[in-house]
Design brief:
Layout: H1 3-23, H2 29-84
Length: about 80
């Protein structure tokens, strides 16, 4: 079973669990919808924050890689001049 299948089964289990939880919820429909809306906003904010963090780390890694490539090119050029010179 690959990761895609596992993820799909996880989502299916989550949906079934949420449905059962809603059926047996001790709160009214309005309170439950308000609670679910609040949790959805919190989840959206968490995903947004993680996305920003990942984008920032990606930019940092790109810059570091660019510097390493520039340094390697400079060293290569120095070596070429030494061999030719």
């Amino acid at each position: 079973m690959d990761n895609t299948d596992r993820f799909l089964w996880f989502l299916a289990g989550t949906a079934v669990g949420a449905s059962i939880a809603l059926l047996y919820a001790p709160k009214s429909g309005r309170e439950t919808r308000r609670y679910l809306g609040k949790k959805a906003r919190q989840g959206r904010e968490a995903v947004s924050e993680m996305s920003r963090d990942l984008a920032e780390k990606g930019r940092d890694l790109y810059e570091m890689g660019r510097r390493v490539a520039d340094d390697a090119a400079e060293l290569f050029e120095r070596g070429r001049r030494l061999v030719e010179g």
